[in-house]
Every structure is written in structure tokens, then in C-alpha cells.
Design a protein that fits this description.
mainly alpha, elongated
Length: 149
């Protein structure tokens, strides 16, 4: 099924999800991280209890899967500088220093879970490569600053 047809089919759920639960996130990466957390790591099914009170769970799963794929693609359409800015903004919203988060993310590759299951391998590889590179830059900046402190 084409992307537009999938959107039309799940439009009420998508519109409610975007207007009620995604609007508070400042950028595409933050939205991508959020929607990835709604996917069960064992089954791959997306869950959103407030939406599931209004819509059938299977429909919610398909709508959120669509949103995940669209946000993932939108993030990758940004140039590398914009991706870096979004990554830094996400890290700035935490209590930990960016270099610590970057080390942790590289160690466990938590960002792998941000990739939609149906993402083509070339987009998955591009995303993972970009994130690894950006995280390495952030770590390098901290190490460079520590050397001269």
C-alpha cells in the first residue's frame, strides 16, 4: 500500500497522535525517539493506551508504524548539520553531560531501536552511520576540551 493510501486509511489516529502527543517535541529526532519507545521490543507492536481507548489496537499499531516510518525518513532528509543540531538539542534536555550520553549510546547502540522495522537497509545503515559519527564527534569535543583544561 502506498504511503498516501496508508495515511488516508489511518488519518484520524495519525492526526490525533500528532496533535496531542507529538507537538510537544521540539524536533524530528525527539519525535523519532518518542515513537520508538511506543514499540514493544519483543513483538514489534506499537502501543498507545490513550489511543487504544478510542481506536482498535491493530489500527493504532499500523498508524504509529506509519508515523515512525515518516518521521524516520523526514529526519534523514535533513542535512548532517541539522541532524547534529537535533541530537545536541535532545541531549541538552537531560541532566547528564552530552559526552556521557554519547558514550552510553555508542556502547549499547541504543539508537538502533529508533529505526523502524520496515526501513530499507540502506536507510537504516545511513541513519546508524550518521548517529555513530555524530556521537563520536561529541565525545571527541569533550576529550579535546579536557586535554586543554
Amino acid at each position: 500500500m502506498e504511503s498516501f493510501d496508508r495515511f488516508v486509511l489511518h488519518r484520524p489516529i495519525i492526526e490525533e497522535f500528532v496533535s496531542q502527543w507529538l507537538r510537544g517535541y521540539s524536533n524530528d529526532l525527539a519525535r523519532l525517539i518518542h515513537i520508538a519507545t511506543l514499540r514493544d521490543v519483543y513483538s514489534g507492536i506499537y502501543h498507545h493506551p490513550p489511543l487504544e481507548e478510542k481506536f482498535p489496537q491493530a489500527e493504532v499499531d499500523r498508524a504509529l508504524c506509519y508515523c515512525h516510518e515518516e518521521i524516520f525518513t523526514k529526519f534523514l532528509e535533513n542535512d548532517l548539520k541539522q541532524q547534529e543540531d537535533e541530537l545536541r538539542a535532545c541531549m541538552a534536555g537531560t541532566d547528564s553531560p552530552a559526552s556521557e550520553i554519547a558514550h552510553r549510546w555508542l556502547d549499547i547502540e541504543a539508537f538502533r531501536s529508533f529505526v523502524p522495522s520496515a526501513a530499507p537497509p540502506y536507510l537504516r545503515d545511513l541513519f546508524l552511520s550518521n548517529l555513530r559519527g555524530l556521537l563520536t564527534i561529541i565525545i571527541g569535543e569533550h576529550e579535546h576540551a579536557s586535554t586543554f583544561a
